[in-house]
Amino acid sequence: MPELPEVETTRRGIEPYINHQIISDVIIRQRALRWPVPKQLGQSVRNRAVVAVDRRGKYLLLRLDNGSIIIHLGMSGSLRICSDRAPFDKHDHVDIVFDNNHILRLRDPRKFGAVLWTGDAPENHPLLSALGPEPLQDEFNSRYFYERTRDRSASVKSVIMNSHIVVGVGNIYACESLYLAGINPKRKAGSLSLTRCERLVSTIKQVLNASISQGGTSLRDFVREDGMPGYYAQQLFVYGRAGEPCKQCGRPIKQIKQQQRSTFYCTQCQR
Asked: Can 271 be counted among the known catalytic residues?
């Protein structure tokens, strides 16, 4: 699934092509995505200009002067910029056509993505209104995280993947951040000291920024908006490396299940 760095990479990639451009049409080939594409989408956005291309968590926001298009890439979705003459295939479900001869095309083989519309502030939309702070912003800091984890018996990994506490830290980056912070993913979140919270928050920011600079992590379906892969996968310390030696101590990386997700960690380096 595309995580925050992949979505941010996509946002940065498509922005130069569509920001301040006028939408001339919307072509919907498959309306039945995770949530139905609104029938009135074309009517709502046609002849309107994109005034900003933003991101909230894993949601992309195309802001117009009368509302916003909310896009989620789901499990396997990608957005690509192509010309208005580019042929489409069976997985190309939605085209947003611009009058500069560019198309923003959603390709989504599993159809778990979404293209939605809101005439209100997108921050008030039910999908976004309860989200926690962005991990790369100042609101997500060690004091905030320490206070939100007091008396929590849930594992620290499940807490940093809780979008109500901090948004957008998916499975790959949770595993990597915990490894670099030296924290066992099974440890109770409420047991972390302020010092360890500070270390973890700093590491989350470090890992996410590093991945964004590398264009994200290409695992299975993710590609960038230009069709090229991200390269952060080459730097992974634990994710997907079960049984391979730890890059620090040499012990085999262990894989367990937490909340139906695979967790990878080093039993020696993470306490």
From this structure: no
